[in-house]
Write a structure and sequence with these properties.
Blueprint (H helix, E strand, L loop, with lengths): L2 E3 L6 E3 H4 L1 E3 L10 H9 L11 E3 L5 E7 L2 E6 L4 E2 L2 E2 L16 E8 L5 H15 L7 E6 L5 H12 L11 E7 L7 E8 L8 H7 L8 E7 H10 L2 H18 L7 E7 L4 H4 L2 H7 L4 H11 L1 H7 L5 E5 L14 H10 L1
Parallel strand pairs: 9-12, 9-13, 13-14, 14-15
Antiparallel strand pairs: 1-2, 3-4, 3-8, 5-6, 6-7, 10-11, 11-12
Bound molecules: zinc ion.
């Protein structure tokens, strides 16, 4: 049995039973309605006339073989198809996504909380710095959903104060160990969640199917919001965070192994300028216990919901300037390692 995981919807696929392949564009001109629906749900503007798919059991399929571990389907007319498609969402199935090698992190937060900038900054670390502080791995950015130029532009835009559009497809990074240690590939997947994805239970089920199997939920709280609420103790702010946490716990449902909750205190670069409570946050940024206490004081609901997750951690981050910790590692690089190991 060969399993692969779809990084778009999270489905685990037994290829011996459910392998589906994309037919070549010239083969037939049948629009792929499943893929078109996926694009509509995620608000992705892309050409939607992808040709139909062909799989085990369909009239066009002749036989499936494995060539160098890669499944290939031969059609009755002798065409070889090697672009694997997910049976649920009809997106491409990537290589090296067997069960256990895919790590999924889902990023949540209020509007303006800096989650899209953070996701882009984490991916950008893999592209530009290659995470050179971590010599156990080579980080390889997968550009099948976004190009590295696009991610670099988003990161540069964030630094210049531009609010990026939500990323509607997952960001995928492959990590390889050195050949000396026996080459192992893992696949890190980051999902940027939009506000309308969590509007109600229906949107959660439709747009966040991957959340049920995610190991990490990253919740972004900006430094300025945390500092303001620490002073005002505004109940309305606590209520809005409660709604987010409620949506988050709904999205992983009755999962036996709930995800870890990683709170990213974003926009730390603003702290010095803001002063007051924000300066206190900057001062204690290396002290996780103190940061958690600040969060529990400002947002008591976080403490209430902590038990629904497998654990809770706090990471101060800045997506726009390379704030480093005591050892010269950028805070985004440190967060990436903390999430994905
Ligand atoms: Zn899928």
């Amino acid at each position: 049995m060969v399993n692969r995981q779809c990084v778009f919807c999270g489905r685990l696929i037994d290829l011996d039973r459910y392998a589906l392949f994309r037919l070549p564009p010239d083969y037939r001109h049948v629009p792929d309605d499943v893929y078109r629906t996926y694009l509509e749900i995620r608000c992705i503007n892309r050409r939607t006339d992808f040709p139909d798919v062909c799989g085990i059991g369909s009239a066009d399929a002749a036989r499936m073989v494995y060539e160098n571990g890669k499944p290939v389907l031969t059609t009755r007319t002798g065409r070889s198809l090697d672009t694997l498609i997910c049976p649920s969402c009809h997106n491409e199935i990537f290589r090296d996504t067997s069960q256990g090698s895919v790590n999924t992190a889902v990023f949540f937060g209020r509007p303006e909380s800096g989650k899209t900038s953070l996701v882009a900054a984490l991916a950008n670390e893999c592209i530009t710095a290659g995470f050179s502080h971590d010599d156990r791995y080579r980080y390889i950015f997968c550009d099948k959903t976004y190009s590295s130029e696009f991610i670099q532009n988003v990161t540069a835009g964030s630094a210049g104060g531009t609010k990026p559009d939500d990323l509607r497809d997952p960001l995928v990074v492959f990590r390889m160990t050195s050949a000396a240690e026996g080459s192992i590939v893992v696949c890190d997947v980051m999902h940027d969640v939009s506000d309308n994805d969590t509007e109600d239970d229906y949107s959660i089920a439709l747009t966040l199917p991957f959340a049920a199997g995610a190991e990490h939920f990253v919740y972004c709280i900006p430094t300025d919001a945390l500092a303001d609420t620490l002073i005002s103790l505004d109940m309305g702010a606590d209520m809005r965070v409660r709604l987010d946490l409620d949506a988050m716990t709904h999205s992983f449902g009755g999962n036996d192994s709930p995800p870890e909750l990683d709170i990213a205190v974003t926009k730390l670069d603003l702290a010095e300028k803001l002063g007051g409570a924000a300066s206190d946050i900057l001062t204690v940024r290396e002290n996780e216990r103190a940061l958690i206490n600040y969060i529990y004081t400002a947002f008591p609901c976080v403490k209430e919901y902590a038990g629904s997750f497998s654990g809770i951690r706090v990471f101060p981050v800045s997506s726009v300037s390379p704030v480093t910790d005591g050892e010269g590692v950028t805070l985004t690089a440190r967060l990436y390692s903390a999430i994905f190991g």
